[in-house]
Design goal:
Blueprint lengths: L1 H21 L5 H17 L3 H8 L1 H4 L3 H18 L1 H29 L5
InterPro entries: Spore_V_AE, SpoVA
Keywords: Membrane, Transmembrane, Transmembrane helix
Pfam family, one: SpoVAC_SpoVAEB
């Protein structure tokens, strides 16, 4: 049943993103920013963790989870290190994902050549 709910929740998040682009005429950059900020706000309100517990990968794979990670890391480090933890927590939690994206993008650029 967890696969079903992951599919449904992930699909709803993606549908919201698509509707933002189609109906609200937002650019992909604006849509992505809106979804990241939405995930951050939901985590700040304590609503995103229960969604992750309920839907698993359906809530952790979409871009809203990046906003969740930013706020979650900042709040956790702020409790331990104070105001400086807000900045360091953001980098600590998200650095692995960002580093992986950069490395794999570079490797893909080496392997696949664009047709011009």
């Amino acid at each position: 049943m967890i696969y079903f709910w992951a599919f449904v929740v992930g699909g709803i998040i993606c549908t919201i993103g698509q509707l933002l682009m189609d109906k609200a005429k937002l650019t992909p950059g604006h849509t992505m920013t809106t979804l990241v900020v939405s995930g951050a706000i939901l985590d700040g309100l304590g609503l995103y963790e229960p969604l992750i517990d309920f839907a698993g990968a359906g809530a952790t794979v979409p871009i809203t989870s990046f906003g969740n990670s930013l706020v979650h890391g900042a709040m956790a480090e702020a409790e331990q290190r104070g105001i400086i933890g807000v900045i360091t927590g953001i980098f600590e939690v998200t650095s692995a994902g960002i580093s992986a994206a950069i490395i794999f993008s570079f490797l893909a650029a080496l392997v696949f050549k664009p047709k011009g």
